Every structure is written in C-alpha cells, then in structure tokens.
Amino acid sequence: MDRKQISFILVALGLWLLAAPSTFAFTDLAMIMNDHILGALLVAGGLLSSFFFARWYVALFLAFGLWLNFAPLLFWALEPIAFLNDTLVGLLVLTLAFRFPGMQGRQEEPAGDAPAGWSFNPSGWAPRTCTIFLAMICWFLSRYLSAYQLGYINDVWDPFFGSQTIKVLTSKVADFFPVSDAGLGAFGYSLEAFLGWQGNTQRWRTMPWLVIIFGLLVVPAGLISISLIVLQPIAVGAWCGLCLLIAACMLVMIVLTISEVVATLGFLAETKKSSKSFWDVFWKGAAAGGVSRPVPSKSWGISIPWNLALTALLGVWIMCSPAFFKIAGTVSDSDYTAGPLLITVSIVSFAEVARGFRLFNVLLGLWLLLAPWILSGATAPFTWNNSLVGLAVILLSFRKGNISQRYGSFDKHIF
Questions:
Q1: What is the DSSP string of 222-254?
Q2: Which residues pair with residue 292 across a beta bridge?
Q3: For residues 211 and 209, what is the distance between their CA atoms, to the nearest angstrom?
Q4: What is the domain class of 120-288 according to CATH?
C-alpha cells in the first residue's frame, strides 16, 4: 500500500466520522462534536498527505487515532454505537499511520536476527503472537466490564464470584478514576495488541522506540492491574473474577515481553559507547554491531524452576488462607496483599532475564513470618500457617534454577 492509498483511506474514514452522528442518530452532543471535528481533521490531513508528505503528519494521525479511542471514555459516551464507532475507527487510523513510509524502521536484513550473544530472537513472532492474543482477551473482557460502567448493559456475568463483580465495578476505588477504569484498561490493552503487531523480527534494533513504549505499556500496566486486584478484598470486600483473569493474562504478557525490552535496552546501551547519535538510533533504529543466528527453541527465554512454581502456589494459598481460617482484621489484609505479590514476583521471575527478581520473595517471606505477631486478628493456627509458609518462601527463593538460553553481555546480570 503506497502513501496515496493510505491518504485516501484516511479521507474516507474522516468522511465516515462526519456522517456517523446522522447515520446512527447520535443524541450525545459531545460525541457529535467530537466526530465532526475529528472527521474534518482526518479529511484535511489525508488530502494534504496525498500531495506532499512530512513526518509530523504521522504524529498527527497517531494522535487522532489515540484520541478517538479515548474520547468515548472521557465524554462518557451515552450510546454504545458511538463508543464502538470511535474506537474501531481510531484503531484503523493508528494502523494506517504505521503504514506510511519509514514507520517500520530500517528494513535491511542482517546475517541473523538475534542480538549478539543471544541464543534466541526476543522479537520473534511466536512470543509476540501469544502476547497479542492475550492482550486481545484482556481488551474484550475490559470492554465488557466497561460496558456496565458506561451504562450500556444492566448486569455483568462472572462465573467465579457472581454479583461481587458489580460491587467492585461500582466501588469507591472505581469511582476514584475520572473515566471508566475498565474502559481505561481496555484502551491500554488495545494499544498493547496493536504495538505487539508492529515491526519485523528485528524490531529490537530497527524500532527501539516502539519496543520501549510497548514494554512500558505491558509491564507497568500489568503491575497496576495486580495492585488494583490487591485492593479488591481490602478496600471493597469483594472479588472480580474477570479482573483476576485479566491480571493472569497480564502476568504472562510481562513474562513474554521482558526479554525483548532487555535486548532493546542493551542495544541502545551499545550505541552510547559508539559515535552514533542515541536519539537517532532510538527513533530510526540502526544496523546491529553484531548479531547471532537463533537456535531453534520453544522456551523464548522462559523456564519454570520447580521452586518458583511452588512459591507461586504458596501465594495462591496465602490469598485464600484468611477465608480458610476465618480471619479478619489487619492481618487478613496483609495476606490479601502478600499473596498476589508472591504470585507476581514468582511468575515474572519465570523470564530468565528477570530471574533475580525472585529475591524480593525473601522480603515477602520475612513479612509473612512477622505479620501475625504485629498485626491484629491472628489465631494460633493462622500464625503457624503463615510462619511455615514464610519460612518455605524464604528457603525456596534462593535457588536460581536452570537458565536455558544465552543473553550475551546480560548473562552476568542473571543471578
């Protein structure tokens, strides 16, 4: 698809936005004005880019696409068709913006496609496809939850905790956000799926900026998702089963993504030692100083040591133990916090480049030992339970486990 074709499709999308409020009988004045303004801007931008092209046009189209995805949340769109129309058109605009010449980074193929000293390619399509699929699951689930918060549906189906999900969606924690928090999550997950799809299998060196933004979306968003889940039993007194499923997907996405981010950061660090401009390489990419041919492998830089699998299971048990022992008070809040953190640290450490992260479990184990003695609400059986689990977590966390892949100069940082 050449530049003129992309431009004319953008014009068509702009005309679609101009016509949508009348076609679908919008009654929401904010969304009507939004579609008319964005439609006119897309028509004008598409026509201009068809005659002469400047790189800043791409930035404008990316901004338009992001705004169209966010506007229905900001304006609390009254009609579901307005929400659907703007988010889908926004994704199409983002996709077309990335099709403009030069947006896919340097395209020359090196002798191999793995970073120097690495035994696998962290930008390969297999782990990225899994990440995109998981992001899409999170996106659909979050859009479903946001449909309730935006008033499009009257009930939410949760196969695990039933009506507790509605209590979570209407809690003070959810009301703290100026927009639908589920919708905000869907916005982030759609960008994760979209950015995971962009670039070739050398994007760790051809599109460093994209990998870093992708990593920032996946890793912090996953940790924020875990934090919000920690708040559910403490601040709300209820669980959201679909939220737990989203968090589980996010944890796996972090594990799948972190190796690519490390490879890109390593590549950028190498450019700082050379005469190349850091920002030029960051935005435009560069040829690698050395590359490796990846060895056929299905591990993608992920291995599951038995001790970390066991600490993850212990984290699940700690989450459940207050209910099992019928414990209330601050000590139960402690377990509701420590359990998800144990699971998070253990699973993130499945990624071999993040294996040293497991040592944070030592601190969590120490806290489990101490918490029943300094917080209110513990009984003798509960104290014994936490003490034994805390001691087991400490002992299990020292073992590094097998490292199945090579990571070049980063090998010395895996401990």
A1: HHHHHHHHHHIIIIIS---HHHHHHHHHHHHHH
A2: 114
A3: 6
A4: mainly alpha
C-alpha 319/C-alpha 361 separation (Å) is 15
Q: What is the DSSP string of 204-227?
A: HHH-HHHHHHHHHHHHHHHHHHHH
Q: Give the number of other Cβ atoms within 10 Å of residue 342's Cβ.
A: 28
- Per the listing, tokens 């001691």 go with 391
Q: Are 356 and 278 in contact (CB under 8 A)?
A: no
DSSP letter (8 states) at residue 302:
B
Q: What are phi and psi of 302, to 5 degrees?
A: -125, 130
Give the span between the Cα atoms of 174 and 349, in whole angstroms. 30
pTM of the model: 0.90
Report the alpha-carbon distance of residue 219 to residue 217 in Å, rounded.
Answer: 6
| Predicted confidence pLDDT, tens digits, the chain (415 residues) | 677 899 999 999 999 999 999 999 999 999 999 999 999 999 999 998 888 777 778 889 999 999 999 999 999 999 999 999 999 999 999 999 988 876 665 555 554 578 888 999 999 999 999 999 999 999 999 999 999 999 999 999 998 888 899 999 998 888 888 999 999 999 999 999 999 999 888 899 999 999 999 999 998 777 777 777 777 888 888 889 999 999 999 999 999 999 999 999 999 988 877 777 888 888 888 876 666 666 666 678 999 999 999 999 999 999 999 989 998 889 999 999 999 999 999 999 999 999 999 999 999 999 999 999 999 889 999 999 999 999 999 999 999 999 999 998 899 999 9
The H or E element spanning position 114 is strand 114-115
Burial class (CB within 10 angstroms; exposed 0-12, middle 13-18, buried 19+) of 282:
middle
The distance from CA 360 to its chain's CA centroid, rounded to whole angstroms, is 22
- 346 burial (CB, 10 Å; 0-12 / 13-18 / 19+) is buried
Domain residue ranges in the chain:
3-97, 120-288, 306-413
